[in-house]
Amino acid sequence: MRRTGPMLALLAFAQFVVAVDYNIVYVALPDIGDALGFSARSLQWVVSAYAVAYGGFLLLGGRLADRLGGRRVFVLGSVIFGLACLVGGFATEPGVLIAARAAQGLGGALLSPATLMLINTRFQEGPPRTRAMAVWGAAGSGGLAAGALLGGLLTQAWGWASVLFVLVPLALAAAALAPALLPPDARHASTRGGFDAPGAVLATVGSALLVFGLVSGPEAGWWSPRGLGALAAGALLLAVFGLVEARTTDPLAPPRLFANRALMVAIGVILVFQSALGGAYFLFTTYMQNVLGYRALEAGLAFVPLTLISMAASLRLAGALLVRWGPRMTLFAGMAVNGTGMVVLAVTMSTGASYWALLPGVVIWGVGGGVTFPAMFVCAASGVRPTEAGIASAVATTAQQLGGAAGLAVLVAVATAGLGGSPELPAVADGLRTAMWVGGAASIAGGLLAFVLPRARPARPARTATGDPVAAPVTGGRGGSRSGGLSP
């Protein structure tokens, strides 16, 4: 039987690579703008092109993983991601780089749901899957820190292109190792029949327009065609997508998925959590650089304690709490601690604060985030059929992407409300502090959604004749779903 340790290591490594890419480009943006001739208004599309393609293709990527197999889609996504990084690193004009970043987003949209699908189908629901999710979440936290650090170091030493070139061997190595470390793809009954092409087009275009509207609103104006127009068109297409899916014999997203209470609650928590988290990362980086005067590399280093604590909480605390408390209390506690950390951080965000004064809020924030991240994806996978694990993972990841884009737009709007063209430093600090308060309060309030989850009573382990524990499942949820409260 194939060992799960090397398989989990590869899946965590893939999550690490995707997370590195989330932060590594930010520090290089000024150099990219100068080298390729981006305007101040167009430079954001180095980030936004990736976000739009990634958010738009996630549902398609998830369903492809269900139909073609997780390993095949994992390899395909890794190769597209790596080759797109290579093309982007060699870009000499803005259009080529933006197209390469969009292709990178497509690769990530295939890779991410395939990775989650493999965890959800190859690790038994309960402690094995909870531990795997904890490792996966910790790898993501480590990637965020590595991205911030590598972005500063590489840009300073070898120029902006190196932040893309460094990802090429990582992504291609993941593709090369997959046949040896990942199990062969099983053939499910769902692979027979036609592919839901109309649903795929509607879901892809609708999701992409929603993300496009969210990232364009702050620049083009919320009432512009690129802002509200794109959001309205995206919402309309997704509504049509829902109608099409209800009448299709082999739908891209089976309607029964949305009757899974654990998945729906997880999506709500993911939206709120990622809205607070995505905006808070930007607020804290802006505060350190624009208010405290940190250089880019120093700002990256300032995130190291947050990331290390978050990784430790994912690995050591999240799984233990899920086993002991079940998903309801674990999710609520994680969200409440996460929001409390942001509020404590907001209290200390003055114009002359030392990093030591900020550290308590950073520590609390890291603990809460580290507990919440794996817990919400454990809930999202609860009770999902193996043949639908990819699309369920994609739905959850799409919520993560939309939440991050929406949270960034809202919290930046709060932070900049009332500021003129050349605001004074205290006014900038006040705006950032208010936005951090709002994000923290939203996280605490969002934690209450966890109580909508079905109750799950942690089972006590049965014992064999030799006294060894045997995992016993805990029922909870609709349709025979099992929540992640199993005793080790």
What is the number of E strands? Answer: 2
Global morphology = globular
- Helix fraction, binned, reads over 70%
Low-pLDDT runs: 457-488
Q: Total helix count?
A: 17
Topology pattern, helix = H, strand = E: HHHHHHHHHHHHHHHHHEE
Oligomer: single chain
- Average residue-wise pLDDT: 81
Strand arrangement in the largest pleated sheet:
1-2
Distance between the termini: 21 Å
Q: Largest sheet, if any?
A: 2 strands, antiparallel
Helix-and-strand structural type: mainly alpha
Q: Rounded to an integer, what's the Rg over CA atoms?
A: 22 Å
User: Which percent range describes the beta-strand content?
Assistant: under 5%
SSE blueprint and pairings:
Elements: H1 4-24, H2 29-36, H3 45-68, H4 70-89, H5 94-122, H6 127-158, H7 162-165, H8 167-181, H9 197-220, H10 225-246, H11 261-291, H12 296-302, H13 304-325, H14 327-348, H15 355-380, H16 389-416, H17 425-446, E1 462-463, E2 469-470
Which features characterize this protein?
488 residues; mainly alpha; two-stranded antiparallel sheet; 17 helices; globular
Structure description:
This protein is mainly alpha-helical and 488 residues long. 73% of the residues lie in helices and 1% in strands. The chain is built from 17 helices and two strands. It has helices at residues 4-24, 29-36, 45-68, 70-89, 94-122, 127-158, 162-165, 167-181, 197-220, 225-246, 261-291, 296-302, 304-325, 327-348, 355-380, 389-416, 425-446, and strands at 462-463, 469-470. A two-stranded antiparallel sheet has the order 1-2. Strand 1 (462-463) and strand 2 form a beta hairpin. Helix 3 packs antiparallel against helix 4 (70-89). The protein is globular and about 60 Å long. The model is unreliable at 457-488 (pLDDT under 50).
